[in-house]
Input
Amino acid sequence: MKQWGVLFKKEWTESVRNFKWLWLPVVFILLGVMQPLTSYYFADIIENFGGLPEGAVLDIPPPSGAEVLAGTLGQFSQIGFLVLVLAFMGTVAGEKSHGTHLMVLVKPVSYFNYLTAKWVHILLISLSSFVVGFAGAVYYTALLIETVPVNNVLSGGAVYALWITFIMTLVLCLSALFRSTAIVAFGSLGTALLMSVLSMYTPDLMKWSPGMLSSHSQMLFYSGDTGDGFWVSLAMTIVLITGIMTLTIYMFNKKEVAGHTE
Output
């Protein structure tokens, strides 16, 4: 446990030095605040900059609070995921490219401790950034539009946090198995996009998919209830996260041992 703590402290120190604990939460706060603000002032923006004919009256019904929060998750799924993947795609791949991981692994360091310390650190920053950004969206939605029931907000946010956990676990896996950060980025973002698209257009076939979690979280905002297949998707996501981490540790160990024996 002491070894794990030292490795985690190393990751924490590097992220503080690189200001990830500052700029990642700031990005998510801006994304979270932007959705309720643009929703509230949308009619004014169109009237002033939309090039409408003189005297034209624009009557756009205001969105509900649930719609705004659902739109916020859409911002997180697009720009937010891109930022997180770019921030962490070199977590292991970067060290492997420069050979700096050997300085750690040449010591009697457990591969399990090495990877899980990075995993927990990635999740801590990613989920903390999501929480502060989502909290900003909830606050301004309540201030400008309407209040969404607290239980709906908390349950929807928790479900979406599991979707983030799955994606960031995949990022770590690809980063540990490949030296190319481009492969890590395209693999992670491509998987997230593919799962989301398939879940959107073939929900009956993709009930098990982690990609359904985003839809379930949005439904929780609207009604406080999830759609069909929620528990299957939830259980499968947890199983996949556990399986990906287990496979990553095994494959990383195997590749590193093979590399040392060559």
The chain has a mean pLDDT of 87. The chain is about 80% helix and 0% strand. Residues 111-144 form the longest helix (34 residues). The two ends are 31 Å apart (CA to CA).
